[in-house]
Design goal:
Strand order of the largest sheet: 1-2-3-5-4
Helix content: 25-40%
Number of strands: 14
CATH superfamily of one domain: Transferase(Phosphotransferase) domain 1
Order of helices and strands: EEEHEEEHHEEEEHHHHHHHEHEEE
Radius of gyration: 36 Å
CATH architecture of one domain: Orthogonal Bundle
CATH class of one domain: Mainly Alpha
Distance between the termini: 18 Å
Length: 420
């Protein structure tokens, strides 16, 4: 285990207790605020970066960006200091696990839970955007689920704020799997880029994997620009249609085609399913086959009431009744009347010769007036002109990305707010 950074409290106030996470930027410790007697989390810049001015500025930027944001879904920043040339950031200590760890542990979320988490993140982003702050690294590793059921957005370390000087020149900051197309092309980060990243996150929550995967970060980034994601309804057919539509809306390549704000996206996520969608039976189990229904014959439309036609129908029924009586006459009365001393056999009405069948009074006459023959039913799969239903191919939800604490760069440890 990493040794504590000195026996004395940082800034004479924060006594380190346990290492929660470690990553490229530094370490996150559970600590105690000895002045106020409360638990806190301390992000301490790594020793290798102690003299790196850019890394120190990144930590200060995170403190400035998060300190101006007050919202239940944003992890609070409490203090900023420096000791032995190592800047540190103090924030509230969160108990629980990152969204990345949750996905790695349990796979995709139920649609209602995923929509609730994504809407909470959207609420936090809306507050940041109104304050002129773009997060620029929305991903499961930077969303924390507390044991109290709260959703917290963490790690504003690469956030860009209005009026702040750029940290680097020509560097592309962010995580490839969640980069908006315009970011990949080198355009400035805007709130629309955060909305896109949140759409990617929602896709992953529902499907268990991000929409684009490849062998390298560059290939993944270019897929955001040039490729279309596999339709969510094909990967996760159990997801309600309104949630599928909201997710794909956020994944639009053109920033202007996405929801106009994080608040608007949250509204789409909280829109209940339509009555027609709500009545659909849920898919049984994950990976259920998506099939097209077998074509069925549409019911005949109701015919308008026409008294004249009704009278004509009555005459037809009467004629059919007379025909039935005449057909039964030989059995009832001993045959047809004799003509010239012999009994002549006559064909039954509507038949095709001796012994032909007679349609009853309630039967529809055969097409074209021909007797006999059965009309093919809907169940005749080989009937001419009828195709066979084909199953839609669909991808199974893959494994989610790497897990970790709320910083995304550290090892997968629960019960911390550590993020890097």
């Amino acid at each position: 285990m990493t040794e504590r950074p000195g026996d004395r409290a940082l800034g004479g106030r924060y006594r380190m207790a346990a290492l929660l996470a470690a990553g490229g930027m530094g370490e996150v410790w559970a600590a105690e605020d000895v002045l106020l007697g409360r638990p806190v989390a301390v992000k301490l810049l790594g020793p290798a970066l102690a003299g790196d001015g850019r890394a120190a500025e990144r930590l200060r930027r995170e403190a400035r960006a998060a300190a101006r944001l007050v919202h239940p879904n944003i992890a609070g920043v409490l203090d900023l200091g420096e000791q032995d040339g190592r800047p540190y950031l103090v924030m509230e200590l969160l108990e629980g696990e990152s969204l990345a760890a949750r996905l790695s542990r349990a796979g995709p979320m139920a649609p209602a839970e995923a929509a609730e988490v994504a809407a909470a993140v959207a609420d936090a982003l809306e507050v940041a955007h109104r304050a002129g702050v773009v997060h620029r690294d929305v991903k499961p590793g930077n969303v924390f689920l507390t044991t109290d059921g709260e959703v917290k957005v963490v790690d504003f370390g690469i956030a860009s704020a209005a009026g702040d000087a750029a940290l680097t020149t020509g560097d592309l900051l962010g995580t490839a799997a969640y980069l908006a197309p315009e970011r990949v092309l080198g355009h400035r980060a805007t709130p629309a880029a955060d909305v896109y990243a949140l759409g990617v996150l929602l896709y992953e929550l529902l499907a268990g994997c991000p929409p684009f995967r490849a062998d390298s970060d560059i290939a993944v980034a270019m897929a955001h620009v040039n490729a279309r994601p596999v339709p969510l309804r094909q990967v996760a057919p159990w997801v309600p249609a309104y949630l599928v539509a909201a997710c794909h809306h956020a994944l639009a390549k053109d920033p202007a085609a996405r929801p106009p704000s994080a608040a608007a996206f949250a509204g789409l996520l909280r829109t209940p399913a339509s009555s027609s969608d709500a009545t659909r039976p849920p898919a049984v189990g994950m990976g259920a086959a998506v099939t097209r229904p077998v074509p069925v014959a549409a019911p005949s439309p109701a015919r308008p009431h026409h008294p004249g036609r009704r009278r004509a129908g009555g005459w037809v029924a009467a004629l059919l009744l007379v025909g039935a009586v005449l057909a039964a006459w030989p059995a009832l009365g001993g045959g047809w009347p004799r003509e010239g001393g012999t009994q002549a056999e006559r064909p039954a009405v509507g038949g095709q010769g001796p012994g032909g069948q007679v349609p009853g009074p309630t039967s529809d006459p055969p097409p074209g007036g021909a007797g006999g023959g059965a009309t093919p039913t809907v169940g005749d799969g080989d009937a001419p002109g009828r195709g066979r239903a084909a199953d839609d191919d669909h991808d199974q939800a893959g494994e989610s990305g790497g897990s970790g604490t709320s910083g995304g760069d550290g090892p997968g440890r629960g019960g911390s707010s550590g993020h890097d």
